[in-house]
Amino acid sequence: MMRNKSVTYSEATIFRALADPTRRALLHLLRSGSRQAGDIAGAFHTSRPAISRHLRRLRRAQLVREHREGRYRVYELNPGPLRAVDSWLDQYRTFWRINLNSLKTYVEAENPKETPRNNQSKSQQRKKKRA
Fold it and tell me: Is pLDDT larger for residue 73 or for residue 125?
């Protein structure tokens, strides 16, 4: 049965593909541009069939695209599905931004002598006294 090319895969498929460090390394390699399958396999200390399986998994998650150039398979990064990851991470960026700002406010309130305004260098304090 032929797969419909317009099918979009779930976030779970993307996250499962990204869970493996070798697949993340493959994506990192493809950030610099498209490469032939043989060149990709040569960049790793893993067997060619193993790299082929990793590339297949990335292709199914639509994280890479494959096309033919003569007898060679060429792979390129497809950054589109990474937007789902970025969207998911954005929730946590907001969480940390709010919590880190709260922590900063708390620390500054508890330790006013530690704030940069009150923590002047000795030379700055001497200059103030002279003026």
Answer: 73
Question: Using CA atoms, how far apart are residues 56 and 40, in angstroms rounded to an integer?
Answer: 13
Predicted pLDDT at 117: 57
Q: Hey, what long-range contacts does 9-14 have (CB within 8 A, 24 or more apart)?
A: 9/60, 9/61, 9/62, 9/81, 11/84, 11/85, 11/88, 13/60, 13/61, 14/61, 14/62, 14/63, 14/81, 14/82, 14/84, 14/85
The CATH code that applies to domain 11-77 is 1.10.10.10
For tokens 């993307």, what's the residue?
14
Domain boundaries, the chain: 11-77, 82-118
Overall pTM surpassing 0.70 (yes/no):
no
* Phi, psi of 76, rounded to the nearest 5 degrees: -140, 155
Give the pLDDT confidence of 112-122 residue by residue, as tens digits: 765 555 555 55
The alpha helices in the chain, defined as continuous H runs, are 11-18, 21-30, 37-42, 48-60, 82-110, 122-130
